[in-house]
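note to self — DONT lose this again. spent like an hour looking for the file last time. sequence + predicted structure for the chain T wanted, 131 res
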Amino acid sequence: MLKVSRRLNYGLQLMIALASDKENSSKSTAAISEQLAIPLPFLHQIAHTLQQNGLIKATPGPKGGLKLGSKGMGISIYDIFNALEGQFSVPTSESTEPIEENDIALDVWNAVGNRIQEALKDYKLSDLLKK
């Protein structure tokens, strides 16, 4: 079974919560943490990473908070995945000699990886909120 990390799941929930605000106004991390039942320190870590990747903007101060970045509703699950988990990667050959079984396995993992990436690119925040 392919396992989705808690970090990725919380990151997607955060992005959906921010996308739900039609005015894209800043929401406090404390309010988001409470709304989504995500521990505040973990939410801060996730938000920091998403901010570094340009997916969200953080405004400091008493009226500050988090809001979607410039891509807005065009942000895909692929963007979120890459920000929080890094590039999807497949194994590489550890042998200098060609091994047919290894080549076949690598071809399969590359094909699966390409399909997963395309599926992740297909889901944008705007699509998720239509459901």
